[in-house]
Each structure stands twice: as C-alpha cells, then as structure tokens.
Write a structure and sequence with these properties.
Oligomer: single chain
Largest sheet: 2 strands, antiparallel
Number of helices: 7
Radius of gyration: 19 Å
Helix content: over 70%
Strand content: under 5%
Distance between the termini: 14 Å
Strand order of the largest sheet: 1-2
Number of strands: 2
Shape: globular
Length: about 230
Amino acid sequence: MKEKTVSVSFMLMGILFCVCLISANLLATKQIMFGPFNITAGILVFPISYIVNDCIVEVWGFNKAKFLIWTGFLMNFLFVFFGYVADLIPGAPYWNNEEGFHNLFGLAPRVAAASFLAFLSGSFLNAYVMSVMKVASSGRRFSLRAVLSSVAGETADSLIFFPIALGGLVPWDNLLLMMFWQILLKTLYEVVILPVTIRVVRWVKRVEGVDVYDKNISYNILKVSQL
C-alpha cells in the first residue's frame, strides 16, 4: 500500500489556518476602535484564514482546501466545546476570575451557531470563487482572484453572522454599518498583505512543484477527498 503523506508547506498552512480560527474566537471578545468605528480584535487574525485558503486553492486545488476547511471547523468546534464545558464546571472557592473566564469561553449557543455557519459558508465560497476563476483565467491575475474571492467569502460571512448573532439585539441600521465596515476592513487587510501572499504562493509552487487546476472536479462540500 502506498504511504500517504502531506508536505511540510501544506501542514504549516493548515496549522496556521486552525490557529487563526481559534484565536479569532478569543480576540473577538474585545472591542476596539478603528477611527470612529467599533470592531472586534478578531479582525487582526481572521482575514489570514482567507489568505491561507487562497494559497491552498491556488497551489493544491479546491479538494485540499475543502479538507482543510472541514478540519478547521472541527478544531474550532472542539475548542469551543471544551471551553463551554470548562465554563460550566464550578470554580474553586479561592478562584475569583469566574466572570472573566465566562466572558472568554462562555460563548452563547446563538453566537456559536452563527459563527460556525458563517465560517463554513464564507470559507467554501472563497475557495469556490478562487478555484473557478483560476480555471477561467488559465492561472492569470492571481491578485484579482485573491481579492474578489475574499470579498465574496467575507460578504457571505458577515451577511450570515451578524443577523443570526445580533439580529434583534442591535438596531438594523447599526448592524448594516457593522457588516459593511467588517467587509471593507477585512478586504483592505488582504490588499495590504497581498505582496506577501504572492511571494508565498510563488515560493510554495516552486518548492512543491505543484500548481493544480480544478478541471472536471466535484464541488460537493460534503465529499471530502483523502490526502
């Protein structure tokens, strides 16, 4: 039987992808100011998951990205689950940080459901757009593909997360502004870091000797191919 292996580059990107997802959960508990606008600190790392997604699709194709997205979803779910269970367990009598711990790990079921659904929808849409555009453009215009795929993914993420998590709690005019600025700032983040993304993709393609085009593949997200 042929031994199945993954490259170091793919493994490192997968680890970074999962770390960014988990970190975003924690950082999102802090509100920060960007000019006159309130956003969460999760914006520092969450867009990186889309950049990694773009790199995976560009080098290894949609099927590998699909495997990574489901892996990231599982790791994120386990993290949230273990944090939720730990939050339910009563603290020791001498421990006085119950409120702080709850603020970090006591994620409400409604917010958790919104987060998971938004992540899956946004990540798969990002990967799909990147994959289809690569084939259609014969591998040209990577910068345009990376930005447009991220806009599609980030838009889907925000359109799903904010109404489910905050609908009825935040006035709709404020909610729409929050969605708009989240999409805009995350897209600008990707544009700023694009020169680094381009160099990483070129380096990985050269080292791995791989440049997959997703021709005649199934985009069924429930069918996860083996590595």
